[in-house]
Amino acid sequence: xxxxxxxxxxxxxxxxxxxxxxxxxxxxxxxxxxxxxxxxxxxxxxxxxxxxxxxxxxxxxxxxxxxxxxxxxxxxxxxxxxxxxxxxxxxxxxxxxxxxxxxxxxxxxxxxx
Length: 113
What we know:
This protein has one helix at 23-27; strands at 34-38, 54-58, 68-73, 76-81, 94-103. It is mostly beta strands. The chain has one domain: Umud Fragment, subunit A, CATH 2.10.109. The protein has a 5-stranded antiparallel beta sheet with strand order 1-2-5-3-4, with no helix packed on it. A hairpin with a 2-residue loop joins strand 3 (68-73) and strand 4. The longest helix is centred in the N-terminal third of the chain and has 5 residues, at 23-27. The radius of gyration is 18 Å and the shape is globular. The model has no long low-confidence stretch (mean pLDDT 80).
């Protein structure tokens, strides 16, 4: 068995805790530049994600080298690792936004305990 440290355990709305667990506390205040995008298939690069996982994408964020980003090329969206490119490079995909969080489905690994 693998042990994991989960920090704290709390129901989403526990009256005895004094306040509810609110997703905006983790994501930051609502923003018109924040989008939720569901993956249509598996992604193994730059990070391992599965079909149906939801990406939280901030289109106002300035990417840093190595961050996971969503790019647009030929009308399609794809995940990529951000690498700065020269401004005059017209062949580079267009940056859509920076992936800030992922709401992922927990999947079995295929191993038996």
